[in-house]
């Protein structure tokens, strides 16, 4: 029997990890985006997933070997598609900043990643809609989407009232048009991670049957989905490194200006490792949270997205991305955050009635 309120807490921890992972990247100096994204990604998609799955599950490699090949292939393909969104996620942060970038990208990601899996299983209209608790969960989903939209409106309002030089000061590469296009693509593709997790349920059940604690049975699924995601990201970063001729930066970080303090590869590596492990922790806590949500585990994806936006918005304040914003803009932001926090409570309550 799951504990939905505990599940909400786990999702909040995952959201905090995801919202925080890009902050260490801001400390990296002298490396181009493709360099630090590739190195951070090694810790996100390969090192951390397999290490944690190995120590927290039973017979990891035996379970994967026993899994149906079609299940594994679906996970990898969805991971490849998710990777297209993942590699543009960093670009979204570059062009829009943490607050607005995450609100736009994750809004679409939350919607598609939540609604489509139960539809594919054929249970949305037969099991979710007819039940009272199902309706409450859907109410929470709707409240989440409203909150995401309101936060996004706040970001757009902020962009209109800010002088170009102020935007460039807080977000060096701010570009609303380019950022929104990238965020749109990112959100659509990123929702495929939810599809990969849903497709990997048979693998998770095999892990549970092997004696894995139910909290961690989904960790092998994350490993397989990330094989596809890592492939997409590594290929794209390799292309950019070859195109931009930035490989030498790995050993000798390049100074961007004469006044910039010299950077070291060792320090950059530590920041990238921290960013990478933080990124992975979002899904470490995600599978723990999903295991507690009962038959409406599909709502986990919305809880995950809402938690990320809540904490990324708070990071936006800490990093002064909202500095100088009007009262109207801040009202949008706080109202949106209130809706998001409320949505997590409503979804948790709906799941507790099952």
TrEMBL record:
Matching entries from InterPro entries are given as: L-rhamnose-proton_sym_RhaT
Record keywords, A-Z: Cell inner membrane, Cell membrane, Membrane, Sugar transport, Symport, Transmembrane, Transmembrane helix, Transport
This chain belongs to the protein called L-rhamnose/proton symporter RhaT
**Chain segments annotated as transmembrane:** 6-23, 35-55, 61-83, 95-116, 136-157, 178-199, 219-242, 263-281, 301-318, 330-350
